Amino acid sequence: MIEIDGNYLESGGQILRAACALSAIKKIPCRVFNIRKSRPKPGLQTQHLLGVQNIAELCNGFLEGDEIGSEEIIFQPEEITAKNLHLRIKTAGSITLLLQSLLPVSIFAPIPVKIHFHGGGTDVPFSPTFDYFRFVFLKILEKMGVKVEIDILKRGYYPAGGSEIKAKIFPSKLNPLKLFKKGELQKILIISGASESLKKQKVAERQLSGAKNILGKFKLPIEEKTEYYQTNCPGSQICMIAEFENTIVGTDNLGQLGKPAENIGREAALEFMKEGQKKACLDKYLADQLLPYLALSGKRSKIEVSEITNHFKTNIWVIEKFLNGKFETTNNLISWIPTP
């Protein structure tokens, strides 16, 4: 049994997600303790609990300690099988983080896994927006051979949630990834969205305007899109996706009560310019999310990232406990070297 200290470095839910997913894939029991120990609300919260319970469901595993507030779980996985999962989320728990938990396990099922989310949030704080998940993260995973179909039936924001999402994850044989040359910029897609209740205030248009005030200073191939949705509470988001010849780089931002919509767009654009001007192929948010897939491919991969974060270091620490191989870091160039 592999022992994982959940209080390592940033002490977040990422440690739990990565450990349980790798445990299921490699059929190695694990114990995770000190779960989210340094966070304001330590232990399992709703989205963490749902994540580990449904990983266990996918691999017919046995869980101990799976209750709200628990700071320790013991997980004993069995064979991964395809399931139709129905996740009912009473809070605005992040659907993108739940998918991060379930996706790596699902691609090892013998036939497609279908997941239906009832409730939860598509665009909530401290997690990727759904547009970033679809148009940046999943697009890079496509390069590795991963196929996922997503159907957004309803968006959800904090605090009410109320989303409805369907996902179909296909069995995949992972290819190695080599991304250290961006290539030429093809286009920049800006998606600005908000609740229907904010349409009169033109929140989506104003977010877009704020972004374009920054990006308009440069001659860039911009494609823009504004959207409004029926939601259970007001909210908004903006996402910027830069498609290069060899890669995709993105940033996003969420609307905030009391902050002008123009500022939300402006902040996203400034972060976007910061990421886009670097020669790295992967933005700092995407880099750590890809690490498990690089290692699970079983072959040498090499990527260049814009920044090595604590999330990145934490994920490396967990992965190397489960898989035979190691990550080598030279400046911001990262290589996965499998053990022969």
Please give a handful of descriptors for the protein shown.
340 residues, alpha/beta, UDP-n-acetylglucosamine1-carboxyvinyl-transferase, Chain, Dihydrodipicolinate Reductase, domain 2, 2 domains, four-stranded mixed beta sheet, 8 helices, 32% helix, globular
How is this structure best described in words?
The chain is α/β, with parallel strands linked by helices and 340 residues long. The chain folds into two domains: 223 residues, RNA 3'-terminal phosphate cyclase domain (UDP-n-acetylglucosamine1-carboxyvinyl-transferase, Chain), CATH 3.65.10; 96 residues, Dihydrodipicolinate Reductase, domain 2, CATH 3.30.360. It contains eight helices and 16 strands. Helix 1 runs parallel beside helix 8. The longest helix is centred in the C-terminal third of the chain and has 16 residues. The chain is globular, with a radius of gyration of 19 Å.
